[in-house]
Amino acid sequence: MKLKKKRSNGANMDVVVGEALGPLMEGPVPEGHIEELYEDTCGVTCWMKGSKRRPPTDPRLLLGVLGCPLAPVPVFCTGPLSNLSITIVPLEASSAQYIVQQYIAATGAMKLQSLMRNCYTSGKVKMMFSQYETATRLFKLPVKSADNGWFTLWHLYPNKWHMELTLEGSMIQSGSDGHLVWRCTPWLGAHALTGPVRPLRRALQGLDPLAAARIFGNAHCVGEKRIGDEDCFVLKLVADPSTLSDRSDGSSQVIRHALFGYFSQRTGWLVYLEDKHLSRVHVSESNENVYWETTIESTLRDYKVVDGITLSHAGHSVVTLLRYGDEATSHTRTRIEETWSIEEVAFNVPGLTPEFFIPPAEVSSPGLTKYLHLHSKPDVALASG
User: Name one Pfam family in it (predicted).
Assistant: First the structure.
């Protein structure tokens, strides 16, 4: 892992360190194509500013949005799941905790807590732009334009993880040592993400029922809804103002972020996730505010038992990126899709120690973190995570 990090950081840090830290600009560039990134005067940056009138095709956008987004809030409790109480909280919260307890029983999360020290997961992904809409034109992109890739995810319970995702030869890495979350791309190198430590959204997609139970233990039940053939309870989790403030940076402000979990009344499993995120970015060149509304809807399916733990082994996500600002002609809507499948899951992997999850050296450097903060470009610093 360290060799890969070192190789990923081989790009010119002094050239690109001033570029945006937003996830939409954090997808990697294949080796040998760094020059093309800077020669493309109407590529990703133009698309994000609204000056691009053709459908986006850059895989960095796919990786930035779907690669490794985070949950809206941190996991405040890492103690035993049995500590969840349904007697001293409001009705909506107690109903949610009862639903979470059913989820714990249905997935075997209690066994995951007591007997499993770590976990390794690998899988395949397919990502594609399916639709791009401007104020005057609608583009529908062919299925053959999909990009294929794979990912590996390592967990050391309760709160350490490392993920690598490769799409058509481009790799993005992300991880957490339990104290900070970082991301690494070939051209930007490694950098810490702003805000509190939050779990990886991909892990909540049926791969880590322990994290899902803990994060939804703080949710509220907001009703029932039918998803496909399943009648579901709906739990809602909202980032509080303090968390949103910590995640805002410079001229980029996170206005709201909510996560909805749909739990099957029949099986108790989490079968659907809906993520809604709104941010505002002040574009200094045009002196206007641009709003980015991101919605990620994920269907989780193909639950299978691995060593007594029930995990989702396949799913599909649909992302809608809505950009709007002062000028109606600059409004755009982009639709992105991902299909994934799990190939391998292994618990209690020998030799997996906390040292494996130490961030790259430059992430731990206060000097570089401050430099990145002061020189980030807020006009393209979007937050999907």
Answer: DUF620
